[in-house]
Queue: 2 jobs
Job 1
Amino acid sequence: MTYLYNEISQTYLTDGYVIVDSHQVALDQLNQHAVRDKSELSVIDFGVGHGTFLKDLHSTGRFGKMTGVDISARMLETAVNTVPMDGIVSEIDKIDQHIPTQSVDIAVAHFVLAYVPLETVLEQANQVLVKDGYLSLVTTTNEEGLTTGWVYPLLDHCKASFNPLLRLVPFLAYRAIPKVKAPENFASIEQSLIEGEFEIIDRQQQRFTRRLETPAEGYSVLIEQGWCVKVIDLPGVPFSLLKMVARYIINRLPFPILGTQVVETILLRRIRPDCNLTLAEQGWKANDASQPQANYNV
């Protein structure tokens, strides 16, 4: 996947309305609960991309050391020219090999759960965050469901086609879908936290409806901006050829295409149980009415 993201590093979406709106929610959560009157905070972004969110944090004047991690060296080149930060080329599951244990105040993991499981993000955040440090999590979920959304109906259209290249689309999609690690819904995120070392401080859910009117817009969003570039991940095939095939296929899809994205923006705080028992063994339950409830805004 690294070579794909290097290839689309200049067109990768960092300022679309889904990202901008959810980033603003995450920024508001951090300002309200984590930053406030503090200064010289340290932050690490697990998937920094072009550095857009770190730039927003830097503008608050509350942060000292900033670190951005990405698997794409080209993305990092852009990021370090966007915001003063240290760049690390690394996969998320190896971040703790580069960052000292319990040395960071805030970790950011925005739109990375399409590539790595939530458990991996929590494990790495638990390693690098100080006690009472914060994890800002933004992720799409599968709450709308592929069968009721636009994906499977579109694949059915391709399967019924007599065009051999269109019939290739379901093969590539079914190959890519299992690699998508996005949570099913908020309940599945909560479940992952039960035996973890994090508590939910704030949560907001947003729904974004996107209508792709033309093949040109479809190609821009799905391939150049990175939303579905994983579908054409065929190692060994030149990217120029992959782009040609993708454009040819998209030009023959039925437009307009209408879809809904459900985005969860969650602020977590790292906690430590009073003993070596897991939270579940201590009797904690996500929906136990006897426990203090976080401020959930949906």
Job 2
Amino acid sequence: MTVPPLEATDTDIDARIDRLREQFAELKEVERPARDGDLVTVDVHGVRDGQVAEGLSADDFVYEVGTGGIAEGVDEQLRGKKAGDIVDVDAPNLQGERAVCVCSSSRYAKRCCRRPPTSGPRTRPSSTPSMSSVGTWPAG
């Protein structure tokens, strides 16, 4: 069986490197208002009929503003807010029912990724070693 060599384009490599940079980035607290991409530490409580609904609460939940991951309208309310602000969002379809999503934020941070210098072309090996250079398995 012959397996064709895998070819990765520079675009593929750059995209993978950017994902890794973001995944392993350092976080730096910020004092400015929140914007898309910021990580906000929030306490989230879904409230129905004046009571906190079971299964709709999380404390110290780290949420990326702009991802739409809590409830519709939360991102719009968090943008421009600072740590300590509380937002109430009417959520007409929170787990299938109407609720109010109450988010109180305690900390805002941004990702800090180090970028490599951009002077000069990036180089990579022109080929990878063949399997024959690895050696052989010992006889069993």
